[in-house]
Amino acid sequence: MSDLREMIRERLGAIMTNPLRIPNVTCDVCTGPVPSPYARCYRCHTDARREAVPVARRVVPLTYAVVGTQADRDMYRYKDLMPAAQRLRNPSYQRLLLLLLGFADAHASCLDVVALRPVTGMIVVPSLRGRTGTHPLATLAAALPSHWARAELRAALGVPESQRRDLRPEHFILPDSAAVLGGHIVVIEDAWVTGGHAQSAAATLLLAGAAEVSILVIARRIRTDFQRSPVEASLQRILTDREYSLDICPITGGDCV
């Protein structure tokens, strides 16, 4: 564990940024910036009020990815088309793998403490773009705890690009509802922009009988072109220059529980 911690400090410290959980500064769901005195960003607030479509109330981003930074570029480059052996040598893929390995070793057990029930399984959100073969996100997710049973979620065919960020559980198909029934399922997603993709997957699971769903996101994407907007002050607080640290729990925003 000490070797992993040191590797994370050396390779991620200057690139990744721990998400913060500060009331009335960051959204208490997705950790994005909010204008004071609000507790949630507009999208998370709106999705939570959709009575007919249940959503996950616990979202755990591992890093912020500010648009235009190396962390943001990593979210594209890790999944570029390339042979599997080459991907393992890809620096972007390696950095995201370190994020997940660090979470699995240091913080995955915290989910069991804060949730109503321990985690029983996980699913990787499939791409709605029709990508064939094993998605690199599924390969990365192999780093997560082995006792999280792997369940399958499939993408519906022909989802228009204009709808892919909408909250629509019909975007996904669950082949075996028994795999999630009554369980606590972790949805694995690579990037959170508005959350529609991951929350649609979460809604599919909840409607199929999952008792609880948490969303684990590698990166919460952050835009900085909000000058003279209500969230400008919050952006200045969450994007202060600081080194990424495995000591900060992504679930609590502070110490582990």
UniProtKB/TrEMBL annotation:
Protein name per its UniProtKB record: Phosphoribosyltransferase
Highest taxon of source: Bacteria
Q: Which InterPro entries match?
A: PRTase-like
What Gene3D superfamilies does the record tag this protein with? Answer: 3.40.50.2020
